[in-house]
Amino acid sequence: MRWLLVLLACAGCKRQADAPPPPGPEGPAAPVMPASEVRRGQDACKAYVDQVCACADPVPAMKQPCALARALPEAMQVGLDVATNPESSRRDVLQAEASVRKIVKECIEQIARLPAAGCP
After folding, report:
1. pLDDT tens-digit map of 80-115
2. CA distance 51 to 74
3. Inter-residue contact 100 to 76 (CB < 8 Å)
């Protein structure tokens, strides 16, 4: 009987350690990415795609990175669509915005690596 009480106490503690429910019926609204940040990110990814694909002709090793880079703007748009969907939960919005920021970061870092790959 004593072990059953210990087990129930531990199980009860585990449930309480989970994330508390959000305040109010829907919780606080997730912050929205500023339009200027979205635009800068789209411009950075478009610039990366343009540069890496322009480099694919003179540098054959850049053909595969060009093919992979073409998916970045679309992946960014999917994240933005999830973030702006009114049916998305706060958690989904925050994760989608983080994903968009990671994609933008990758685009910027890859632009910086192009000269080392032999691209003008």
Report:
1. 999 999 999 999 999 999 999 999 999 999 999 999
2. 17
3. yes
Return all residues near 90 (Cβ < 8 A) that are at least 6 apart: 22, 27, 28, 29, 30
Rounded Cα gap, residues 27 and 93, in angstroms = 13
At residue 23, the 3 state secondary structure works out as: coil
* Dihedral (CA of 28, 73, 59, 119) sign: negative
Mean residue pLDDT of the chain comes to 83
CB atoms within 10 A of CB 2: 6
Q: What is the pLDDT of residues 1-15, one digit of tens each?
A: 454 444 445 555 544
| CA separation for the pair 70, 45 (Å, rounded) | 9
What does pTM read for this prediction?
Answer: 0.73
